[in-house]
Description:
Elements: E1 2-6, H1 8-15, H2 24-33, E2 38-42, H3 52-61, E3 66-70, H4 74-83, E4 87-90, H5 106-122, E5 126-131, H6 135-144, E6 148-152, H7 154-165, H8 174-204, E7 208-212, H9 220-224, E8 231-234, H10 236-258
Parallel strand pairs: 1-2, 1-8, 2-3, 3-4, 4-5, 5-6, 6-7, 7-8
Helix pairs in contact: 2-3, 6-8, 7-8
Amino acid sequence: MKLGVNVDHIALLREARKINDPDPLEAALLAKRAGADQITIHLREDRRHINDEDVKRIVENSQLPVNIECSIDPDIIEYIANIKPYRATIVPERREEVTTEGGLDFSLIYDRLDNVVHYLKAKDIEVSLFIDPTKEAVKASKILGVQWVELHTGRYANIFAMLYSNLSLTRNSIKEFEIQRSKLKKMLYKSLEDLKNAAIEAEEFGLKVAAGHGLNYQNVFAILDIDEIEELNIGQSIVARAVFDGFENAVREMKRIISK
Ligand code: PXP
């Protein structure tokens, strides 16, 4: 299974102070050293984390294939077409959202999507569509002629969190707790089945299959059982883990310096 590391959250931390540290390119280079197969970045319309200059620097210097997530905004598509990354993944985008909330809604943007897919492919950029794991979405992707689909794992990840964090389960009575758990287990099973079926369908259509969103060190295992998925794009949980894995060393080093 290939790993695309999403470094948007490094840029988000930088933007909190509007300075140049931490640098998402440095994260990309460390990800390469650690065995990542690809760097994934999302150039959002509001530029809340990754900006145009980051895209250019990362595509030119990361020494890994770069997968740029983006909406179908014409200016962004034009920018990406000129930068020529290895792949563009078209995602839906809403200004108010905290993160990408669902797969593409084809009915809303089909004609514009069709133009964008043809335009990017003509520029020799592989195109992927971020879709909900449904037959309809896989079929629409096939008709549009993209090479990849990325299956949205957010629903699976949310149910997994509800089931295993326990915090979201009511504590009224043991019976009610058990009823809720059993409902969530069924929902979890169904969400995995949807992902599996969509992956099979996509592979049968000759599409390459990626998946991502909300995957972490606990919930990723069940996804690994879906053989048709060949790549995962993971960001938030890796950056969250990195904060704690590196925090102790960072404090120790500052203490050492100022103790002289
Ligand atoms: N794949 C896509 C298409 C995404 O939009 C995102 C979030 O930017 C990811 C993968 C990574 O999600 P997460 O940060 O939750 O791992």
